[in-house]
Write a structure and sequence with these properties.
Blueprint lengths: L1 H18 L11 E9 L3 H10 L3 E5 L6 E5 L6 E2 L6 H4 L6 E8 L4 E2 L13 H8 L13 H4 L13 H6 L8 E6 L19 E2 L19 H10 L16 E6 L7 H8 L8 E3 L2 E2 L12 H12 L1
Parallel strand pairs: 7-9, 7-10, 8-9
Antiparallel strand pairs: 1-3, 1-4, 1-5, 2-3, 6-11
Helix pairs in contact: 8-9
Length: 307
């Protein structure tokens, strides 16, 4: 009955798209050919079960013990119908404690909103000299949100960043990773602080977080976020990061289907090394969409807290 209902929803979705308009049935789930599986007994047992049922074991899901990423190449990559057949039989294995086909989650990057430039005679600009702090970075004089402090009236920022710097808080000995669409590890403002141990490509399953370049240049968000955090100071390039002495890494995870497993892998990368995971993205922020972390992402958060 459930399977038939799902089939009807998918048929209605295809029909409405064909006719050129959208309707509520098109909000059907999109299933992928990736599964999250909890298997007791270690990686060897997981490998044997994966091979028996035609999966490829892609390894443990981040730092979540006994949780594995299974991939099935002969299953449709994206479908409005969940897979049955041997995918159901694997759950009967004594060592398989839980299995879930991964579903695509809609995630939106949070970007800046342009604001009118400050006047060159505004308190924020005139305060650059008063602070006796000067860097040769090209955009330093335009970074009004840093030049603001307790002594400046009518300032648009109350972060008091220079006050923190004067107290020695510059990010030294702190490791930050940006969960996003990748970061340019060789960027002239980032390479000095780049940390490979805080970096990974979840989308391509390799160690290099470099963004995928295309004509639209849509994968620039992660690099921008990394620059705001840890762009090197006094190197004649671009800007100064808020924590310019921090180590910075990146996780490429938004340039593809985002699933519960993708979020969990990203949030569980090298947790004994990384201090801060920064994620400037989330569900639609439209006032009517409510979404949060699913089971694996929740476990990743709990694992980070407990461990």
């Amino acid at each position: 009955m459930v399977h038939n209902a799902a089939w009807r929803r998918s048929f209605l979705c295809v029909l409405t798209l064909y006719l050129g308009f959208a309707s509520p049935p098109c909000k059907a789930r999109i299933y992928t050919n990736h599964w999250a599986v909890r298997i007791a007994g270690g990686p060897g047992v997981a490998d044997r079960i994966a091979e028996k049922y035609g999966y490829r074991n892609m390894g443990q899901i981040g730092d979540l013990k006994d949780h594995y990423h299974f991939f099935h190449s002969r299953t449709i990559k994206r479908s409005t119908l969940s897979s049955r057949g041997h995918h159901s039989f694997i759950s009967m294995e004594p060592k398989v404690e839980w299995i879930e086909q991964q579903v695509v989650k809609r995630r939106i990057k949070r970007d800046y909103k342009p604001v009118p430039p400050l006047s060159q005679t505004s308190p924020a600009y005139s305060n650059v000299a008063q602070n006796n702090i000067f860097y040769n970075d090209a955009k330093w004089s335009s970074m009004w949100y840093i030049h603001c402090n307790d002594d400046v009236h009518n300032c648009q920022s109350d972060m008091n960043i220079m006050g923190a710097w004067k107290r020695g808080y510059t990010g030294k000995d702190v490791v930050v990773t940006i969960l996003d669409d990748g970061i340019e590890r060789n960027h002239p403002d980032l390479f000095q602080n780049y940390d490979p141990q805080a970096s990974y490509d979840v989308n391509s399953n390799d160690l290099d977080p470099m963004p995928r370049y295309d004509a639209t240049n849509e994968n620039k968000h992660g690099t921008r976020c990394a620059g705001e955090v840890a762009a090197a100071a006094n190197n004649s390039h671009c800007i100064v990061g808020i924590a310019y002495n921090a180590r910075i890494g990146g996780v490429r995870m938004l340039d593809g289907d985002v699933t519960d497993m993708v979020e969990a892998k990203s949030l569980n990368l090298n947790p004994q090394h990384i201090d801060i995971y920064s994620a400037s993205w989330g569900p639609d922020d439209d006032g009517k969409t409510v979404d949060g972390p699913a089971s694996l992402a929740r476990q990743a958060f709990e694992n980070g807290i407990r461990m």
